[in-house]
Each structure stands twice: as C-alpha cells, then as structure tokens.
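Why predict the complex rather than its parts? Because the way molecules touch one another can change local conformation, and only a joint prediction can capture that. The input here totals 521 residues.
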Amino acid sequence: MNTSSDIAVQLCGVSFAYNGDGDIDDSPLYDGFDLEMQRGSITAIMGASGSGKSTLGKLLGGELASSSGTVSWARELAPELDHFYIDQDPKKVFFPQQTVRENIAYPPRKRKLNEINGWVDKLLAEFRLTSIASRYPLFTSGGQQSRLALARVLSWKPKCVILDEYLSSLDVNTRELVIANLHRMAAQHGTTIILITHNLTEALKLADRCVILGEKPVKILADISIELPHPRNEQTPGYEAAEDALINALRHGIL
Amino acid sequence: MRCAMESFRKRVPALTIYALLLAAWWLVTAKAWVEPIILPSPKAVGSTIVQMIYKGGLLRDLAVTGGRVCAALVIAVVVGIPIGLFFGYQKRLYEMVEGPLHALRSVPATCLFPLLLIVIGVGEKSIITLAAYPCLLILMVNSATGAGLAEPSRVRQGKILGLSSFRLVTDILFFEALPHITSALRTSVSYALVLVVAVEMFIGVGQDGLGRKIFDYQSGFRIPETYSEIIVTGSLGVGLNLMITLLERRLLRWLPQTMDTARRSG
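Output of the joint prediction:
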C-alpha cells in the first residue's frame, strides 16, 4: 500500500498571538490558519522575516501551543519524538558533557548495544563526524556542531523533523552533504521533512513543495510544487523555471 | 621537552615573586630591621619546621585540621548538591525556600558555634558541623541556581526521550549546574579552612589541630614554631585549592573556557 499520500499533519483553524511585550499591534499572528502536509513529503515554508515562519515551526514542534484550533499529527507521528523541532542553535540539541559519539549513541540507548554501535557508526560517517567522534562538541567547529545536532536527532529515527533555518547555519559544502542526507532519509525511510527557510536555494534543492506565508494574520500566499529529480543542482532541467516561479511568488508576498 | 620548557617559562614570573619575597624576608631579618621576636629568620623557621615534623607532631596537626576540613566538605557535597539539584528541578518549591536560604547563608557561621556546643556538645562533631554548614548552603544554592538555568530545550528533549526524573537530574541538570558547583566548591574550601582554624584557635575544642597550635605557641612566645604552623596552614590552603583546580579541570574537561576560569580564580 502506498502510504506516501497519507497526511502527516493537519492544522485546522489555528490561532496564535504573542502576548503584548509593548507591541502596539497586538492582533493575532495566526487566526484560523489551515495547512496540511503529506507523509514523506519535504515541504519548505518560506516568507519574509516576521511572516510567522518560526512560529509555525514551533507550533508544529509543540514548543508553542495554539490558542485555538488543532494541530493534529497522524498517529505514527504523534509522539513528540516523531516530530522534533530544531532551530539554528545546535547547542540546544546536544549534551556538551558527552563526546560526539556518545551524543549520537545516547538517545537510542534502549536498543541492543551492537545494534546501536552499527547505527552510530553509520550516522557518524554520513555526517562526516567519524574523525571527531571522541571530541567534546564544544571543542568542534560550528558546522560540526550543527551536523552533530541533526545526527543526534536522526539517531532516534524520528518520523518527521522540523528544521527552522537549520541549513542556513551551515557552510556551502556542509549544506550539500546535509541536503543529500535529508533527501536520503525521506526517500529511504519516508521521513517527513518540514524546512523553514528564507533561502531559495535550500527550498529548490530539497523540497518538493514550497508554501509561502505572509500578511497578518498569516495566510498562504502561494503553494508551489517543485517536481525535479534528485540530486538537484543549477543545471537540473526545470531548475531555472522552478526558481523563477518561486521568486515571483515571493516577490508577490513581499509587496 | 619543549612542553616542559614552555610550562617552566610560564612559571618564571610567579617563581620570581616567591624568590623576591623570600629574599626580602631574609634581608629584613639579616639586617635586624625587625626583632626576631616579631619575625624570625627564614633559616630559623625552616629548621623549626623540619624539627617539628620529626618531634613536634606538625604532620599530625596538619592531618587533624586537614581531616576536619575534608570531612566538612564531604558532608556539604554529599548533602548540599543533591538537595540543590532537586530544588533546581522543582523550581516552584525552590522559589518558596529561596529567601530563607539566602537569609541563613548571610548569618555568619561562627555565630552558631555556641548553639552547636549546646545542641551537639564539645568535640569533633561540632567543629565539623560548623564548617560544613555554610559550605552546604553555598553548594546547595549554587546547584539549585545552576540547575535552574538549564537550557529548556535540552530538558524538553530529555523528557521527550522518556528520561525518568532521576535521569533528567543526573544526565542534564547536574552538568548544567557543574560549572556553578565547582566555583561553589572553591569558595567552600576557603570557608571550611577558615572556620576550622578559627574554632580550633579560640574555642579550644580538642587540644590539637593547626589553629590550636598557632595559638598555643604564640601564647608561649615560641615564635619560630608559631610561624611554622602558620606556613603549614597556608600550605594546606594552597594544596586544597590546587586539588579543586585539578578536580575542576577533570570534571569540566568538556567545557572550553575551563582552563581560563581555573587560572583566573586559582
């Protein structure tokens, strides 16, 4: 049975407002917002700064609670482990007192030890962390810390990850590597990926759908599907056309 | 080899200062600018220390005082840190007791000694209790503060991963609090040493310990012996601090700025 057409998460009439803080405009940021995402899909959420992208990510990840409406996850994705939110600060994710390797081995510790070791070695290799496996994370570079954070989250095989500007903190080479890894996760394990980003290239290289948010209360300004083969680069046929479509939609959103 | 040279070179300024102080001491006594009854010569003090090690029970005094300080610290660590971490985990509860705890911490521990004598009686127990008391509060408050400042995302992740309350405390909160705990430990060592020596000196519980001996020798105008005891007491302080520095380096080896903080406060 093809389950990829199932819905991973459904937002229904979601409302949310930040409380005052001297903000003159205290109208709600979200007021009756609807959105659905398919299981196994890679969705990019885009929009100008302040368009409520991160708020949406936190609502999805359970870091914020909506004041009304529902965020309903499919049953398999319902545990909080299975829709985990990461922002651009990797330090919040790993435990600094554990080595890189221990950090990746910590979450799945309930499984058999030999099973864990193989899985940890694989993740270390995929995220090019093998050479620094025995170092403490705070002694590694920012890019290595970011890769560790994602590898740690993927160690427990979440069914969905929500990445909030996560890729933006990576240097170009690392970003390509992580994009390839994320695509592999989606293709092989059916991992649902929600990518919150202001970066066009990230959306074009990874996502198969791009939702552009704007205005207040937030609504969907454009919902564009990106149907390009993987791995993608600037020479991929149709890349430029997709890029133009996105740029047009974003420009419309800003004006 | 180069590394040894390098570390030696770093120590040159410190060693120079020690040498200058010693030279000044020697000069002052050699020129008889100060009477020997106030300041005996380095040579006299040095030979007294050696004599006292063999005949005067200097090492025994050191062991007695050092033992009391260590006992007080162990009690403070074993009781204070777990309670503090628990308070860091139960923030509501901590908010309720925080005011009284800080008030208690502000009461000079020495004030409580007469009370302790009534409650516990004269002896080792009251000395150790007195020294442990402020250390326990310092460690408790710092553990609670440090644990309370834990990164919320990390705690949330722990909960999502299904960690028990105990594991949340031992695997997350303890390490978040650890930098605060080690600096509290450093303060505690000084407190414990000061209190043990002061109590030995003035309240006269037990006839031994460095504090008691400093007082006794001074009363008998045995000045080189007095200086010897003072120097050994000072060395005990230096030694304890060095131990804390090494412990801190070991416990916080995952935290990059450890070396700098250790050097600054050590």
